[in-house]
Amino acid sequence: MTTLELIASALGVLAVWLTVRQNPLCWPIGLVMVLLYAWFFAEARLYSQVLLNGIFAVTQVYGWWKWTHGSGAGGSRPVVSATAEEVGGGLAAAVLVSIALAVAMGFTEAAYPWPDATLTAFSLLAQLWMALKRWQCWLLWIVVDTLYVAFFLFQSYWLTAGLYALFTALAVMGLREWRQSKAATA
Questions:
Q1: What is the DSSP letter of 81?
Q2: What's the rounded Cα separation, in Å, for the pair 81 and 185?
Q3: Helix, strand, or coil here: 134?
Q4: What is stated as this protein's family in its record (predicted)?
Q5: Which end of the chain, C or N, has fewer beta carbons within 10 A?
Q6: How far apart are CA 49 and CA 8, in angstroms?
C-alpha cells in the first residue's frame, strides 16, 4: 500500500458517497481521485486502467456540468430510467470497446489486458449512465465493482480491493436511493 493509493482510496469513498447522496461535489472530488489513480495504475502497468481514469477525468467534468445544468427543480438533473435502446446499445458498445481495447493492450506490456479492458469498457458505460443520472448505472456498478474486487485481490492490491468492496456496498445503497428518488419524482 502506498500513500498515493491511500489518498486516492479515501477520495474515492468520499466521491461515491456524495454521488449516492446526489451531491454535485462528488464530481470535483472524483476528478482528483481519478487523476491520482491514473498515476497509481501507470506505476502498476495496468494501462487500460490508466486510460479509464483519464477518460473518467473527462467524465467527471461532464458529469459535474450535467448535474449542475440539469432540467429539474433548481437546475438539478432528475434521476430517470435508461431506455431499452440505451441499455442494449450501451452494453453492445461496451463489449466492442472491450475487445478493441484488449487487442490494443496486447501490443503493450500490459499486465492483464483482457480483464483490464473488459472492466474498463463496462466502467465507462456505468460512468456515462451516472452522469446522465440513469438509475441503472448502479446495477452495472454492482457487477463491475464486484469483479474489480476479485481482480485487485488477485494482484494483491489489498487497499484498492477493499475500496472496490466498499464501492460495491455504496452502489447497492445508490441503487436503492436513486430508485426511491426516481419514484418520488414520477
A1: P
A2: 12
A3: strand
A4: Belongs to the nicotinamide ribonucleoside (NR) uptake permease (TC 4.B.1) family.
A5: C
A6: 14
Rounded distance, CA 140 to CA 21, Å?
18
Nearest CA to 121 among 143, 150, 136? 143
Tell me which residue of 61, 113, 111, 117 sits closest to 94, measured CA to CA: 117
Tens digits of pLDDT across the chain (186 residues):
788 888 998 999 999 999 999 999 999 999 999 999 999 989 888 887 788 899 989 999 999 998 888 665 555 788 999 999 999 999 999 999 999 999 998 888 888 889 989 998 999 999 999 999 999 999 999 999 999 999 999 999 888 898 899 999 999 999 999 999 888 776
- DSSP labels, 25-41: THHHHHHHHHHHHHHHH
Containing H/E element for 23?
Answer: none
Exposure of 107 by Cβ count < 10 A (0-12 exposed, 13-18 middle, 19+ buried)?
A: exposed
Range of the domain at 21: 3-185
Q: DSSP 3-state helix, strand, coil percentages of the chain (rounded to 5)?
A: 80, 0, 20
